[in-house]
Amino acid sequence: MTARRRPENSLSNRASHDRPAHTVDMVFSSRLRWAVPAVVVTLAATGALVGASASAAPTDLAPRTAQQLLTDLASAAPQPLSGTVTETADLGLPALPASASGTLGPLTLATGTNTLRVATDGADASRVALVGRLAEYDVVRNGAEVWTYSSEKNEATHITLPDRPTTATAPLGVPTTPAEAATQVLAAIDPTTEVGVADAVVVADRPARQLVLTPRSAGTLVGSVRIAVDAATSVPLRVQVFARGAATPALEVGFTDVSLTAPDAAQLTFTPPAGATVTERRAPAGTDRPTGSAPTDPATPTVLGTGWGAITVLTGVDPAALNGTAGGASTQLLDSLTTRVPQGRLLSTALVSVLLTDDGRVLEGSVPPAALQAAA
User: Fold this and answer.
1) Going along 98-250, which residue ranges are E strands?
2) Distance between CA 185 and CA 91 in Å, rounded?
3) Which residues on adjacent β-strands are paired with residue 146?
4) Are 170 and 181 in contact (CB under 8 A)?
5) Is residue 137 helix, strand or coil?
6) What pLDDT, in 10s, does the model give residues 15-36?
7) How far is CA 206 from the centre of its chain?
8) Sign of CA dihedral 20, 165, 188, 51
9) If you ran DSSP here, which 8-state letter would residue 3 be given?
10) Residue 203 above 60 pLDDT?
11) What is the C-alpha separation between 143 and 139, in angstroms, rounded?
């Protein structure tokens, strides 16, 4: 098979919209945004990341307390950067069907080890390129303009976001840098979280201190999270998420190389290649809603609970897409990843549970499956 050429302004060549059309994309687009330098979906998909370059712990760093590291992260100025990120997901999912796994995109981040090249100006322009052997999947944001592009399909999607300061920095729901992944993890801190420090490490040839977050509640699948914080700039260099009782990360996102300087502006723009199919889509529901106001769209997610045990509920989903009558590759993938339960279909991984009910709801959280069934 001859691979389509990558766009001339791709990162590789330089060394969300409506709810997803397929149910399976929707399943992974919320919690797996932790990983994706999403990303997909997560990523889809600015630096979200096993495989990060790490060596012996540095010995000359002055100690910092956990509170000091939290303050460092909160007060650090946005940092222009570019580099390579490795993302590894070991969530206990079965092998994806060939019809799904053969296409490079947000779902690729759900299993295995993946390489992404990221760049950001530290403000409102960023790019993440999910790199395959013969193809590339790009997510480019410059202000209110967001593009996604699949070189395999030569298809591009253009989204215009509301020009508001409250617009999310990961418009497609997936972080593209460890900084975005760290932001989402830190948002889960509540009074039940134990915050500590671990030994310093070297990530991408840069000394880093480690912040450790450990939920005390038994109502979450998350055992602990480690964030490697650059000693000089307080930029997150790596995020590791451990399932409860596990000794190795279920999800890891980290830089293997990074330059903390402004990238070439050309890397942060996108023009569809000649002959590409371009689709225009609306901004995600709720992105133009003032902070704190109640959702008016039934498709806008609501949240039950707080912190690590929070459950997100999306309503108004087409039941036909959830009960196996949607047809095509989406149904095949859904069948392979989920099991039937009285409420509908259940997907269970080491870190995330998702329940797709027969009455058109999607419930997800880093909680045991029983918690979702009770909430439903």
Assistant:
1) 112-120, 125-131, 136-142, 145-150, 155-160, 193-203, 206-215, 222-230, 236-243
2) 17
3) 141, 159
4) no
5) strand
6) 333 333 344 444 443 433 333 3
7) 23
8) positive
9) P
10) yes
11) 13
